[in-house]
Amino acid sequence: MRKHFLTLFIVSFILCLSATAQRTPRYFIKLQSGEVIEANRIQLKSPIFKSNYFLIDDSLKYSPALVSTYQNEEGYFARVEPGSNQDAFAKRIIEGPRIEKFYTSRTTYEGYGYSPYGYGYGMPRSSRKRIYYFSKDGGPLYLFNQENLEHALSDNAASLTLLQRHRRDRFINTGTTILGTGLMALGVINSQQTTNGSVKLSPLLYVGAGVLGAQFVINLFQKDKLTQAIQVYNYQVKQ
User: Fold this and answer.
1) Are residues 64 and 129 in the same domain?
2) Dihedral through CA 211, CA 217, CA 222, CA 227, nearest 10?
3) pTM value?
4) pLDDT tens figures, 169-228
5) 46, 160, 190, 221: least buried by Cβ within 10 Å?
6) What is the DSSP secondary-structure string of 181-219?
C-alpha cells in the first residue's frame, strides 16, 4: 500500500512540474518603450502585400517597428537599424557576460551580367552577405570591426594584444596581395610568344601565383583574432 502511494505521489509530482513548465513563458519581445511581453510562441510573419508583424501565442500582433529585442525558438535578436523587416534585427551568435556578437544578412547587387539570350545585359547579380555587430553590457549594436573593438575592449590588455595582431596580419595580407599580383602582372608582360605560335610563360607568373596561393592557405588556418579578443575579454570577466 505504501509503495503504491509513493508511486502515485511521484507521478503526480512529475505531472505537476510538466504543467507548470508549460505555463511558464519561454520567450519574449521587448518593446521600444521598455515593456516586456512574455509568450510561449513568437513568430515574425511576412505576408504578401501586407506589413510584417510579430504574432504572439497565435493571437496578439505587434509591429516590428515597436520591438527592440526578442527571443524565440530561433534565438535572441536585437534591433540593428530602423525598419520592420527581418533584416532589421541581428541574431546573437556569441553570448557573454559583457561582450556579445551578432550578425544579420544583407542582399547586395553586383554589376550586370550578360543576357541569357546572347545580347544586351541581364539583371544585376544578387548575393546574401553577413554583416557582424557586437554590443557591450547590453548596449546598442556597433559594427564588428577593428576600430570599434579597440574602443570597447580598451580596458583589457590581452584583448588589445589580439587586436594589434589582427592589424599586423591585415597589413601583411595587403602587402602579400600587392606583391603576388605585381609578380603575376610582370610575368604576363615578360611572357614571350615563340616562333611556332605557342607562348612561353615567364617564371614570375608562377612565383606570383605561388605567393597568392600560400597566402590563401595560411589564411584558411588562421583564427579570427577579432572574435578571440571578445572571447578572452568575456573569459577574464568570468574569472
Assistant:
1) yes
2) 100
3) 0.73
4) 888 888 888 988 888 888 778 777 666 667 777 888 778 888 888 877 777 776 789 999
5) 221
6) HHHHHHHHHH-EE-TTS-EE--HHHHHHHHHHHHHHHHH
